[in-house]
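In response to the reviewer comment on reproducibility (Comment 2.3), we provide here a single inverse folding case reported in full, input and output, so that an independent group could reproduce the run without further information from us. The structure tokens appear first.
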């Protein structure tokens, strides 16, 4: 999975960290997930224990988007075959499909191809009747990969606004609150287009706490946020958004635009949503590998959030406690965490939250036989071609220079020079961040 694994796997601790990270990403891949959770039994489509009689429907349409949508569609085609009439998914990791059209878009900043693909999805949904079944594949990354600018807005308006939100260090919930109110598909509006068809959402969650309203900005989920909430976020971060976006949000707050769809709207009465994989899927798989290799695993949390460089210091502190006191576990051990950290961008460099986590950890770490790995499970961390990084106490020689790079949000080149970057390419999935810290035992090899 990782480029230059032979170089990265310098010690047994490095090798175990790589194995844990690989297992976590693989466990959340749509092929393995759908094989476990979706099957045909006669004329019954069974999804996580729920059953749907496919004889009741004239057509089965597959619509959706996100980092994992292409691979999920491929797995669904393997399961349903010719029962799928047609479909469209937008992804940045395209798959070879026979029944579903796969359109390649860009992430994390949306592009024109994604916009055109999203419009096609909405047009397909509008053709659905009460006798149709729509399977909506909604995965992490869908907020960027399913752009459909509302009314007079242009794609460039969404691009600029997304960039501003990312640079400001806004949380994913805040980012999506704004994006929902600039879109014709988010905030439940795909369900609005598909009504009165039956909609079954299959979710690969990249959101802390599995708030389905936030995954891909909730195309098939009710939304409780408002234009007023979106304006509050813009004001809080003092965002330099386009005038057209400011005007749209202001007019929406004044009641001139329809709000996103709430549960009480009745639009979701015939909508079922199933979370097939999430961050804990990856964490559990990493934990299994650690235990198999004789290390006691501790899953700290799948809800970690905050500034990446500060979160790293907390993780190093816990590692030091483990090494010093055996609390909460005695070495050899593996600490595992997930969730989603953020970066408030002050500089003009290259990198991402997982790389900043790793470099910050490298500046703090002074434990022998300890390795820290951090990746974004979709293989794309920030604005570069790396999933994250793998470090130990000896990774950084020039700590003042590394600290300057961190303060300037320019960590990629520093980690690249030390051969610490983890590169996977597109992984076919996205269930948020995965971090592992391998702490060797007292008798472990140096």
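Designed residues, in position order:
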């Amino acid at each position: 999975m990782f480029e230059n694994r032979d170089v990265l796997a310098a010690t047994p601790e490095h090798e175990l960290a790589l194995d844990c990270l690989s297992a976590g990403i693989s466990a959340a891949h749509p092929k393995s997930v759908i094989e476990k959770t979706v099957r045909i039994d006669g004329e019954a489509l069974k999804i996580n224990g729920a059953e749907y009689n496919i004889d009741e429907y004239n057509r089965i349409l597959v619509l959706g988007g996100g980092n994992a949508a292409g691979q999920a569609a491929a797995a669904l085609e393997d399961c349903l075959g010719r029962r799928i009439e047609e479909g469209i998914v937008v992804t940045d990791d395209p798959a070879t499909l026979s029944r579903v059209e796969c359109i390649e878009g860009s992430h994390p900043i949306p592009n024109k191809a994604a916009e055109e693909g999203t419009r096609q999805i909405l047009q397909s949904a509008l053709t659905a009747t009460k006798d149709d079944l729509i399977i909506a594949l909604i995965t992490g990354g869908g907020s960027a990969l399913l752009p459909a600018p509302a009314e007079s807005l242009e794609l460039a308006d969404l691009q600029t606004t997304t960039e501003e939100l990312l640079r400001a260090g806004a949380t994913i919930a805040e980012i999506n609150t704004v994006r929902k109110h600039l879109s014709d598909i988010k905030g439940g509006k795909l369900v609005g287009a598909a009504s009165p068809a039956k909609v079954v959402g299959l979710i690969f969650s990249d959101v802390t706490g599995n708030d389905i309203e936030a995954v891909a900005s909730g195309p098939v989920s009710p939304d409780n946020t408002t234009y007023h909430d979106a304006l509050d976020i813009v004001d809080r971060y003092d965002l330099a958004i386009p005038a057209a976006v400011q005007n749209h949000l202001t007019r929406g707050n004044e009641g001139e635009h329809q709000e996103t769809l709430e549960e009480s709207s009745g639009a979701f009465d015939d909508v079922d949503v199933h979370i097939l994989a999430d961050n804990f899927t990856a964490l559990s798989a990493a934990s299994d590998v650690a235990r198999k290799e004789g290390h006691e695993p501790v899953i700290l949390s799948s809800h970690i959030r905050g500034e990446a460089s500060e979160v790293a210091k907390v993780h190093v502190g816990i590692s030091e406690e483990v090494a010093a006191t055996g609390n909460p576990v005695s070495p050899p051990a593996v600490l595992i965490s997930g969730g989603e950290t953020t970066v408030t961008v002050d500089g003009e460099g290259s990198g991402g939250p997982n790389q900043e986590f790793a470099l910050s950890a490298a500046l703090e770490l002074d434990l022998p036989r300890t390795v820290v790995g951090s990746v974004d499970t979709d293989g794309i961390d920030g604005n570069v071609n790396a999933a994250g990084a793998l470090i130990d106490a000896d990774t950084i020689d020039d700590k003042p220079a590394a600290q300057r790079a961190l303060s300037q949000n320019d960590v990629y080149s520093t980690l690249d020079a030390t051969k610490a970057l983890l590169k996977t390419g597109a992984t076919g999935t996205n269930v948020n961040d995965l971090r592992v810290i391998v702490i060797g035992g007292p008798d472990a090899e140096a």
